[in-house]
Amino acid sequence: MKNINWGTGIAILYISFVVGILALVTLTTTQRVDLVSEDYYALELDFQNKIDKTHRANTLAEPLRWQLTEKTLEVQFPKEFLRKDLAGKIRFYCPSDNTNDADFAIMPDARNQQRIALAKLQPGRYLLQFDWKNGETTYWNEGAIVVKNSERQ
Questions:
Q1: How many Å apart are CA 36 and CA 39, to the nearest integer?
Q2: Are residues 124 and 73 in the same domain?
Q3: Are 4 and 45 members of one domain?
Q4: Which of 29, 80, 101, 128 could form a disulfide with 143 if both were Cys (CB 3.0 to 4.6 A apart)?
Q5: pTM score of the predicted model
Q6: Are residues 113 and 131 in the same domain?
């Protein structure tokens, strides 16, 4: 075997370092980076408002409840609230892929219930975010669900 002189060794080391750095730069530029929200700074400023809404929701005599069935998410709003005064949105936030996020308007039926078909969602883990109000009083509830539907319509 030939002996490699120190000049050739340094050249090989330098070239391998440059190739390694170029490979890392290429790898990092092809990675997807999803922000929780595009307007995260404005949401941070509104955080105290969210804390207040959560506190109001936690002190209700009859809290907001939800149940996951095989094909729907069933939401039960407090019975003492009038259906016509309920408004807001239900957000399905998918932490792993923001393209799976979905928003639904709050539209309860005569029994203050709402059913959301899960067939509209991709399978995966979702954080439920209820931003709702009764009249002028606002509330916030959160939870997590796993959608397992394989039969999409």
A1: 9
A2: yes
A3: no
A4: 128
A5: 0.70
A6: yes
Report if residue 57 sits inside a domain: yes
* Mean pLDDT in residue range 39-48: 78
Q: Of 85, 94, 151, 98, nearest to 120 (Cα)?
A: 151
pLDDT tens for residues 70-80?
889 999 999 88
Contacts of 109 (CB under 8 A, 6+ apart): 83
Q: What token pair was written down for 104?
A: 């639904």
Residue 116: CATH number of its domain = 2.60.40.3080
In the 3-class helix/strand/coil scheme, how is 108-143 assigned residue by residue? CCCCCEEEEEHHHCCCEEEEEEEEEEECCEEEEEEE
Q: How many domains does the chain have?
A: 2
Give dist(CA 120, CA 62) in Å, integer: 29
Taking CA atoms, 85 is separated from 23, 78, 88, 106, 111, in Å, by: 58, 12, 10, 11, 13
pLDDT in tens, 108-126: 998 999 999 998 899 999 9
Shortest CA distance to 133 belongs to which of 85, 93, 91? Answer: 85
The boundaries of the domain holding residue 18 are: 1-31
Same structural domain, 26 and 73: no
